[in-house]
Amino acid sequence: MVSVLPDGDLGLIHPQSESTPPASLPRIIRQLERRGIQTPVLLRVSSFLERGIRTLNESFNQAIERTGYKGTYRGVFPIKVNQQAHVVQRIVEFGRPYGYGLEAGSKPELVIALSRSLAKDALIVCNGVKDDEFIRLAILSRKLGFNTVIVLESPKEVDTVIAAAKDLGLDPLLGVRIKLTNQISGAWAASSGDRSTFGMNSDQLVTAIDRLREAGLLHCLKLQHSHLGSQIPDVNDVRRAVNEACRYFTELTGEGVPLSHLDLGGGLGIDYTGEMKANDNSVNYTVDEYCLNVVETVRYAMDEAGLPHPTLVTESGRAVVAHSSLLVFNVLEATFFEVETAPEPEPDDHHLLSDLRAIESYIEPMRLQECINDAQYYRDELRALFRRGYVGLRQVARGERIYLRILSRIKRVAHESESTSEIDAQLEKIADIYHCNFSLFQSLPDVWAINQIHPVVPLQRLNEEPDRRAVLTDITCDSDGKIGRFILADGISPSLPVHTIDDDSSYYIGVLFVGAYQETLGDLHNLFGDTNVATIDLREDGGFDLLQEVEGDTISEVLSYVEYDPRDLIDDFRKLVETAISEDRLSVSDRKTLIAAYRDSMNGYTYYESH
Ligand SMILES: *Cc1c(COP(=O)(O)O)cnc(C)c1O
Question: What is the residue-averaged pLDDT of the chain?
Fold first, then answer.
């Protein structure tokens, strides 16, 4: 996906042409900036999205071929994973050759699905709680040729569907959602098992079948659905669940239900950390392996039961879109906690300053903890004296600087001498802070909410040894607005290796794999709005085409989201200005400047703008 270019830039690898030189990300960002698209920017790489869809569909097709499976694969993209119009449109286009469809979990998502021109044999699978309006629209859409499947989630929904179908005089296309008893591991364990929200248990299922039979609609029930939750870490959980799903399929077929489609939901995970392990941010399998396991398991089960192989459906969302976007922001400022030079001694220095300074003479691998303790003690004593008025501001400031200098020295020795993890943990507290131009709450909500780890990487100077370690803070006024867990080659670290920034050139950082879930879960903390978005396509000659740009929210847009009327705000501000003029507090020429400044701000980007 990405690789380091000889000049140290991070480059995007063309997914289909190995000989193409990777496209430099800093160059892409600079070219976007020249066109007025500033960072933070969400970069969607169309070629990566296409690859996601191709990989999933072709992996299933290959698994089908390899195992001699007689059915086909008809995937659907769950709209909730990325509902953005431009993304869904591209998914529909790239998916058309594969008969790829859409999954709608709500009325608005069904409204989106019914406005797209899908392949003739593509499915629209409707999950979630459905009212009469939702169900009627789904049934009526079949008149337009859509294969809209209403997945029955509860016995109550069965009744609503029976009534609507009778009233409309039309046969619906039905599915049934079954709660499997096998529970998966990982962050979404609660989406599976007895206590999960959606789907019917065996008792409800039998009731539903009986009611459909009574109503003369059992012949409409074609699809069996189960969703295990997202980001399933362990492929053996998938196998067990698919096996259980097949048991239900066999039993229902035995009951006379004419099932033809087996839908296994989402859950195909992404290896965010690259560890290839069954934990919250990684998975122990590849897409190929997942597909092969699913197809093989279904084939054995169906052969054993003597049933024809059903059409396989999955609703993999994350695995299709996560890789296709990255968030790029610039570092605005750094607070360095590692200092190279200490202030020179002065005659009237308090003795605590000399005590601090003296630690330097005994920093050695076996005495690191002692040095940390001493530095901490003298610094705290100095602060206490300051609070009581015994030392002045300049003395305490010099002391803080010497303290940081000592800790930086300790850190260097610790790095060179393979120190213990306790010492490392104490020293991590003085990692530098890089203040970055983005909002965690708007652009990376899962990092905040569920400790999601995304690969984070500086986009330039990767041919230079990083000389600092930093945590990244955002520009919201919230201490939670920071990234403090990074995946490095040797595991998870609380700080990221970075370079010392200079004032002359921008330092960009990229957060990868943000195409799934992050875009619409974000909120308006501190009223930071949507970022700019640019969609690019990688060209075979190593360049890129800008397919689309969407400007991020302006300040007046975010204000109207929280019910302010921008025109009223300008009027109110104008009144304050007029009053100040009439009371001689402001000149008439100030009036123009003030109103122009207010108006310009209203039209500005909510993020830090560098001109
Ligand atoms: C969220 C969801 C999905 C998508 O899951 P991924 O883990 O993104 O593949 C699929 N089906 C249903 C019913 C869902 O709720």
Answer: 94
